Amino acid sequence: MPEHLGSFTIVLHSHLPYVIGHGRWPHGMDWLNEAAAESYIPLLQAFNRLAGEGGPTGVTLGVTPILAEMLASDVFKLEFKDYLDNKIQAAREDLATFQRLGEKHFASVARMWEGHYRELKRVFTEDFGEDLLGVCRRLMDDGMLEVITSAATHGYLPLLGRDTAVQAQVKQGAAAYRRHFGRDPKGFWLPECAYRPRYPWVPPLPGIAAEPVLRKGVEEFLSENGLRYFLIDSHLLKGGKAIGVYKDRFEALERLWERFAAQYQERPEDQEKSPYLPYLVSSAPESKRPAAIFTRDPKTGLQVWSGEWGYPGDGNYLDFHKKRFPGGLRYWRVTSAKADLADKGPYHPEWISASVNAQADHFVSLIHDLLAEFRATHKQPGIVVAPYDTELFGHWWFEGPEWLYQVLSRLQKSTQVRLVSAGGFLEEAAPMAVISLPEGSWGEGGYHWIWLNEMNDWTWRHIYPAEQEMEELAGRWAGDPDPRLQDLLKQCGRSLFLLESSDWQFLISTLSARDYAELRLSMHKDDFRRLAAMARQYAADRDLPPEDWNFLELCRERDAIFPDIDPQWWARLEYPPEEGG
Predict the structure, then answer these.
(1) Which own/partner pairs from 220-223 qualify as long-range (CB within 8 Å, at least 24 positions apart)?
(2) Per-residue model confidence as pLDDT tens digits over 232-257
């Protein structure tokens, strides 16, 4: 028997669009409050428990730069405590109502919610000192987990129109990570696991006549900035059908997929490459340093992502959709995958432990079997990489954080499966094989259709001109010593970052918050245009009317992100591609 069969890491991708100052309910600040209460704090509690039991946790935690900006904000800390107080009050009011109606069981669940939110507030204020990023730093310092970065505002990198736009998203991602976590990042979460190699590119929009322009591969921007690895979906490595991650959760995507599926052709499967090994990826000339990749394991992915047969569909678990208003607390269980809201049975917290433990045992057994099979066929230990959206655990699946704790606790005690972060594995098992990858993402169909379709293609017609304008502004004045001009250019960059958020296309496609997404995109487009015009006028006249300075201050206060933004990122492309290179 070998010393160990292989390794396991769970990769949690944490992201929300910037919402501070941009609404509260149903769309806006409460997205952040819900994610913190339902996912981030329970998961950090689980990681602390695991660290106390001996660690490491095997967790690779992605935190997007824009999310880190929000979690570090004093506005969030204040509003989050108010949010928790409101939930406590809602539970009290529900309790009084249920007691008056003689609903003893629902009253007991209301008591559970009151205690739950009281404990969350205590943990946030006392145990965590209102500093969630600080908890992450301490866990990193103790070697318990690894935090990785991402693009500044989760821009969909393959569709951004200029290489300087990609460069700025990556550089801001690295700079924000260093500011928040006090070290250089090793890993990078590609937004939506979306990759594009180097090739002559044209804007993928009808009616735009443009000559092909040689664009750098996404991996080039990472390696140039000291980022050693990223993650991809399995179909980019091996071909075959893309599993997708969103269709089961959004009915609108199901309808979009039905239209798209007729055009979809899967790549033939490549049996030589394995998702249980890292590889080096390069689409550039041989002189450039490649970046490493880790590949999503499809089998473990389906167990958690699938709404039809995955673990979260257990009938005993808390139902996500049915809520009691006005407080928004949930009192019902899934019951069955096909049950209408009216047919949902009451939630019984005491029924949960058996399901959580059985599913944790099953998942650990699955990891063991996958690694044993790989070891037997390849004569070397591999690594199972299981990436998920962080918000799946706790927000979408209330019992998810406890399930994850049970999985990792079992694996901590295993003598055959080793818990390790992605970066830690790379330190020990540096890949040698250099491969190329096709363009694609982890969305349905494996390509870009969720972020570029007939519902949202108009958004790119606003993004592309803004990217060109930012490049021109920075090219002319990024080196100008006038601090007021630099303030204008920096705010232009912030507005462009927010305009480039891939969340807007996603929310439009899913119809989950279409009006909000369209409003936000239009607002950031208008902000950018006015700020750009102000920058040009100030560069010419060295003065602006008072209402323009007031507008700049309004934007800076409302969108107070990325104090380390640098207009030089848009002024000049580092290591430009050469034709034929």
Answers:
(1) 220/283, 220/284, 220/288, 220/575, 221/157, 221/163, 221/166, 221/167, 221/170, 222/170, 222/188, 222/291, 223/288, 223/289, 223/290, 223/291
(2) 999 999 874 444 444 444 454 454 44
The residue type found at 9 is T
Exposed (0-12), middle (13-18) or buried (19+): which is 489, by Cβ within 10 Å?
buried
Catalytic choice (146, 219, 314, 389): 389
Alpha-carbon distance of 291 to 387, in angstroms, equals 19
User: Does domain 457-571 bear CATH number 1.20.1430.10?
Assistant: yes
491 contacts 473 by C-beta, under 8 angstroms = no
Catalytic residue among 163, 192, 220, 503: 192
- Give the pLDDT confidence score for residue 253 in this predicted structure: 40
The stretches in the chain having pLDDT less than 50 are 1, 240-250, 252-253, 255-257, 259-261, 263-264, 580-581
Q: In this structure, which amino acid lies at residue 557?
A: E
Which DSSP string do the residues of 470-536 spell out, in sequence order?
Answer: HHHHHHHHTT---HHHHHHHHHHHHHHHHHTBTHHHHHHHHTSSHHHHHHHHHHHHHHHHHHHHHHH
H-helix or E-strand spanning residue 279: strand 279-281
Q: What are phi and psi of 385, to 5 degrees?
A: -110, 120
**CATH for 6-15+42-72+131-196+204-426, options being 3.40.50.720, 2.70.98.40, 3.20.110.10, 3.60.10.10:** 3.20.110.10
> What's the pTM?
0.94
The model's pLDDT over 279-306, given as tens digits with 9 standing for 90+, comes to 999 998 876 889 999 999 999 998 998 7
**Is 192 noted as a catalytic residue in this protein?**
yes
Is residue 422 helix, strand or coil?
helix
